[in-house]
Design brief:
0% of the residues lie in helices and 55% in strands. It is mainly β and 206 residues long. It has two domains: 99 residues, Immunoglobulin-like (Sandwich), CATH 2.60.40; 100 residues, SOR catalytic domain (Immunoglobulin-like), CATH 2.60.40.730.
């Protein structure tokens, strides 16, 4: 994931920024200098002078799953680094925080299709999330997931019930068919995993 960053650098008027490279970073730990894990912009930021003591800059940080452990999911700190032509460095810590979460995926399938009004619909699905260490998606069990319905011709989903995903992330429940519309599952996310809603599955009620 490429994260675009804008930042401001302030400096003494006696210091020229022409010989200094700056860049933003994300880190876990007590400081950027001794981080448990860290991502920094591959290229120095592009800066524009505001006045004799201020420049506005922009850069991109590339965050790669291959460099993450699952335990890295959570809140990361923001920081910055400046390097002069002599190799001297200036670190900035605790400039803010940002969530780094494991991506979740969710599916939904309502059957039978079509269905007679008043009959039972079974809605199945699965909640998975990225396993950074395995490089794949795995079932996310024990999570509260909402079953939602959007009536045909409307734009808003309404929650019908909340169920819990199985140990493998599987979801299954039943509802009574009332009118044409879309059924989906929706997951609110956690501090370590992103929120996600499945694509709505349209059911024709006859």
């Amino acid at each position: 994931v490429k994260v675009k960053v804008t930042y401001t650098v302030t400096h003494p008027s006696t210091v020229s920024m022409s010989g200094i490279a700056t860049g933003p970073l994300l880190y876990r730990g007590t400081s950027a200098q001794a981080a448990d894990n860290e991502f920094i912009s591959d290229d120095p930021g592009t800066c524009t002078k505001v006045n004799s003591t201020t420049v506005n800059c922009s850069a991109t940080i590339a965050v790669t799953a291959a460099d993450l452990y699952n335990s890295d999911a959570g809140t990361w700190k923001e920081g910055g680094l400046a390097v002069n032509t002599s190799g001297g460095t200036k670190w900035q810590n605790d400039l803010g925080t940002i969530p780094v979460r494991r991506t979740a995926k969710l599916t939904a399938d309502a059957t039978p299709e079509p269905v007679k009004k008043g009959k039972t619909l079974t809605v199945t699905g699965k909640l998975t999330r990225a396993d950074w260490q395995k490089g794949t998606y795995v079932g996310f069990g024990g999570q509260s997931v909402k079953l939602q319905f959007r009536k045909a011709g409307t734009s808003t989903y309404t929650t019908l019930k909340t169920i819990t995903s199985s140990s493998t992330g599987a979801l299954k429940t039943t509802v009574t068919a009332g009118s044409d519309g879309y059924y989906r599952y929706s997951f609110a996310g956690t501090s370590t995993t992103s929120s996600v809603s499945a694509a709505g599955d349209y059911v024709d009620v006859q």
